[in-house]
Amino acid sequence: LVNVTSISWQQVLKCNIFGGLFSKYKCLLSKHGVLMKKLMKGIHTNRPKEAQSMMIRRHFMDLTHSFLFPLEQYVANTMPLQKDISPWKDAPRLREFDKEEFLKFVENADLPSRTGIKGDWISLYRLFCNTKTFTYWLKQRQTEVNTRLRMLHLEALAGATVDCTLQSKIEVEVVDFILKLRDALNFAESHRELVNEELLCRVNDHYRKALQYKMFISQTLSIGMTLWRKKVFQSAAVMVRRCYCKKLGPIDEECEEVKAWRGQLTDAEQERLKVAIYEYNLYKYADATLPSNLNVSHLRKLLLMDTKTLRLKYLTYLGKKEKRHVREEEKKREKIELGKQIKEKIQAERANAKHITYALGHNFIMRRIIDTTMNKIDDARLIFASMFAPKIVFDMGFLSELSPIETDLTWIQLREAYYVNRNHHTPFAVHLTDCNFHHPSWSESQRYFMGGLPTYMLDMDSENFTKLYDPRQLVYLSPDARKMLDSVEPDKVYIIGAMVDKPNKTNCTLGKAKQFNIAAAKLPIDKYVKWECGSKSLTLNQVLSILLEVNSNGGDWAAAFLKHVPKRKLVAKDTRVSKLIRQQNREREEYMLSLHQ
Question: Which CDD domains does the protein's record reference (predicted)?
Answer without folding.
Answer: Trm10_MRRP1
